[in-house]
């Protein structure tokens, strides 16, 4: 799944490709926002981590991956 994070006062958004579910991502943000100096940490598919101060998160855009068909042929019935 792909998560786009808008950070306040930063012109570009962060894009994280993660194996975490949408519920796990939103739960992580909720937990980080409840702490005084909370940090949102997401695990990247390439074994990396992205950490953003929760108070600086402007928005999260969570998009499910689409199943893409592979190949160039057409099906005939």
Write the layout of secondary structure elements.
Blueprint: E1 2-7, E2 14-17, H1 22-34, E3 39-43, E4 49-53, E5 57-63
Keywords for this structure?
single chain; alpha+beta; SH3 type barrels; two-stranded antiparallel sheet; 1 helix; 5 strands; 17% helix; globular
Describe the model.
- With 77 residues, this protein is an alpha+beta fold.
- It has one domain: Roll (SH3 type barrels), CATH 2.30.30.
- Helices cover 17% and strands 35% of the residues.
- The chain has 1 helix and 5 strands.
- The chain has one helix at residues 22-34; strands at 2-7, 14-17, 39-43, 49-53, 57-63.
- The strands form 2 sheets. A 3-stranded antiparallel beta sheet has the order 2-1-5, with no helix packed on it.
- The longest helix has 13 residues, at 22-34.
- The model has no long low-confidence stretch (mean pLDDT 87).
The helix/strand order is: EEHEEE
What is the name of the CATH architecture?
Answer: Roll
What is the β-strand count?
5
Q: Could you say which structural class the secondary elements and strand pairing correspond to? A: alpha+beta
Most strands sheet: 3 strands, antiparallel
Q: Class in CATH?
A: Mainly Beta
Which range best describes the helical content: under 10%, 10-25%, 25-40%, 40-55%, 55-70% or over 70%?
Answer: 10-25%
Ends apart, CA distance between termini? 34 Å
Overall mean confidence score, pLDDT: 87
CATH topology (level 3) name: SH3 type barrels
Quick structural overview:
The chain has 77 residues and is α+β, with helices and mostly antiparallel strands.
């Amino acid at each position: 799944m792909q998560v786009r994070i808008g950070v306040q006062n930063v012109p570009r958004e962060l894009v994280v490709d993660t194996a975490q579910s949408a519920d796990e991502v939103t739960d992580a943000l909720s937990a980080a926002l409840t702490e005084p100096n909370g940090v949102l940490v997401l695990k990247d598919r390439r074994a990396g981590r992205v950490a953003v101060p929760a108070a600086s998160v402007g928005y999260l855009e969570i998009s499910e991956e689409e199943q893409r068909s592979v190949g160039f042929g057409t099906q005939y019935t």
